[in-house]
Amino acid sequence: MSQYILRRLLIAIPSLLGISLILFIVLALAPGDPFSELATNPNVPPEVREALRMKFGLDDPIYLRYVHWLVAMVHGDWGFSFVSRMNVDTLILQRLSTTLYVIGSSQVLALLIAIPVGVYAATRPYSVFDQVANTLAFIGFSLPTFFTGILFILVFSVKLDWLPFVYSTDIKATGIHWVGEQIRQAIMPVMVLGLFQAASMTRFVRSAMLDVIRLDYVTTAKAKGIGQRRVIVKHVMRNAMIPVVTLIALQIPAVFGGAIVTEQIFRIPGIGSLLISSILANDTPVVMAVTFVFACLVVLFNLIADVLYGWLDPRISLR
Amino acid sequence: MKLGTELQTMIDGVKNGRMDRRGFIQRMIALGLTAPMATQLLAVGGVAMAQTPSTYKPTKRGGGGPLKLLWWQGPTLLNPHFATGTKDQDGSRLFYEPLACWDADGNLSPVLAAEIPSLQNGGLAADAKSVTWKLKPGVKWHDGKPFSADDVVFNWEYAKNPATATVTIAAHRDITVEKIDDLTVKISFKKPTPFWADAFVGAPGAIIPKHLFQDYTGDKSRDAPTNLKPVGTSAYKFVEFKPGDFIRGEINLDYHIPNRPHFDSIEMKGGGDAVSAARAVIQTGEYDFAWNIQVEDEILLRLEKGGKGKAVYAVGGDTEFIALNFTDPNTEVDGERSSMKTKHPLFSDPAVRKALALLIDRNAIKSVIYGRAGRTTANFLNGPEKFVSKNTSWEFSIEKAIKLLDDAGWKPGADGIRAKDGKRMKLLFQTAINGPRQKTQAIVKQACQKAGIEMELKSVVASIFFSSDVGNPDTYPHFYADLEMFQIPMSQPDPAQHMRRYHSSNVATKANKWQGLNFPRWVNKDYDAAIDAAEGEIDPVKRAAFYIKANDIMWEDTVFIPAMHRLKVEAAANTLRPVLSGWANETDNLHEWYREA
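Predict the joint structure of the above. Result:
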């Protein structure tokens, strides 16, 4: 098993290098200038823009800039943001907890809905419960988050005035009130993201369960008189979870990306909104770092998925 | 000349108290001058600049609770010398203060200065080559150290150093700042400078403390810890900053203006978009104030119905305009399009330019797009009042445009498109991607079609359009189109820098990597002469006349067709009493804000 993990880790290094090189080239070739805002300001002479470009090495050749970046990165220096002149790692760390809190909660919510509903629906295919769950799931994943987000705001903030729609990182209350406020302001974004995720996951859990439930060994187990609940939990679910784990693990980096829209709507200061504003400001060091973090997440969760496979089905890790 | 002597008598009258200020201004208005123009007359006659009386009501410091501001583009750094946009200036200005700031009429009011320099108090030299600022005594930085002339001198040295690469370098590099005593600084200019209030004034002129920045000048400027944790002199002390997201400050109990500020703490939240920011203030009241709500008026009116806030406006000089290309964008000379060696095939005929000006339906643009946030105008220079030309007027008339083109020999062909000498009237009209701009384009295109002009519309992503990327042909200074539309913010109530841009020495070409600011590539000797003369003219009335003349030359030549004089739009809670100026940043007069009980 440890050898298996080691092998996987070694493969990850060249892939990350390749990803970083491609990201860097794409960003370097993309049009735009971090100091474009100065262009229409008559108080700022063009020489200042030139001087800033020189100072931040924007006019160096691409390969030189990439080597600089890579060497610094290996030394743990993520560079600094052109726009806020702050270290990129500080910027990302500042926002990480919020992202993890909101996205983590929405992911947990999605699992809490998807697994029981999917499993229950699969055990009674085409029952009323299954039909209703299916319909809701279809509606759920056909509605984009920017639509449900605004709908939630209109209903719960504007009409009913129950929940705030501007996410605040600075809540003045203490103790239990602080916890309460944190939960209150996270309800809408977590629901929006969580329900969207739950919808597609429910469909997936259901079909994975159905695939396994029809296999002969399940029929045999039932014939031997093992109780329905035990058959489902011990025999069916464990096998059905393999593709589900893949889906969830591979989806998590995508969720970070998908949350960008939600973060923007509710003004959640997460990594996604950092990425958006940095792209708009052409702040390449931040865009590079954030996208690279996403790439690392993809690789990491692939690895986790592989390890989980090995645990769920030991045949996979042997070779 | 007779008027001149009479004026002098009257100004003397105000000076020695025979006539009061208001009486003088009323007489001037009766003579057809505007109030700010009359104020300027007094200033040059040796009477100090008027100060608009404060509307501030609270009688004690604090007690106003928190003030919650929503900036949909949150500040990303808090050093006024590095502020790459108004959002950063706004954020820096929460903690740092300038010597003086602009009020709604374009007059200065003192902040860290004890008084506004004038000829009368000896602050302004009669030859306009120096200005002496007296500093307010007893001002302390938030860490308790005294504020003094050394800080002002340090800011000059810091900003003019090219290695620091500040965005405020232009205001500082051509002046000399010296300390006379602890509370007096003298700024000297190389030549007579009528606009003496550039350095140390307004949000870009906010002053940073010498004792915390002196070890971080030049190349080390980025390492200053105080870049992110400002220690200023303002009404609010710094507490917390998350770039792009959040700033918090608390009341400064040692603030140097009595009874101020009203609020106990201040927070500025960033992110999101303009419409939802307007909603959070006007409709749900979650926030007290939102900045820059440039959304369609129809949406604001809908939100305002039964809401907790309203839209508020400030008049400045921002003009949305359509610029005409005086060179040919479709012919390449020495590998350069829109080269100075070419002439625009259609626009070299003044009748075509005049016809285009007749085809811009400003009333439609106002009613469909800008609503309360726009004023129709024929001028490029729309403020302050004393610089606005009264000699121009605009008209929308398709018939007149058609007649003009017919008379000039541009006859419609078989397809209805006009042509002359084999040149078809087909125009490419570009702008930055933006809802109101694209709607304006559509309105213009429709009118042009009726007059037999074919118009192709193009819109470029704003981050490219406004970039200084030399390699990208779609930026506005390249101007590889026939027409383009945008707006250049007028950040000072003085037109010198704004109008200097179109001097013929500033033409944007390949040779200067398109860094020149005169992008229509328009050359006019009379204009150059007016601008040059204005810059050396000390008499404000004559100086204003030069700028009005420059504006009229532009109008006569149809270089810019103004589409709308745009107002600043903000959202404020019904109980909030913000003090705004079209000539200042929104946070510039924050110490004067309060909440009505």
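The mean pLDDT of chain A is 83.
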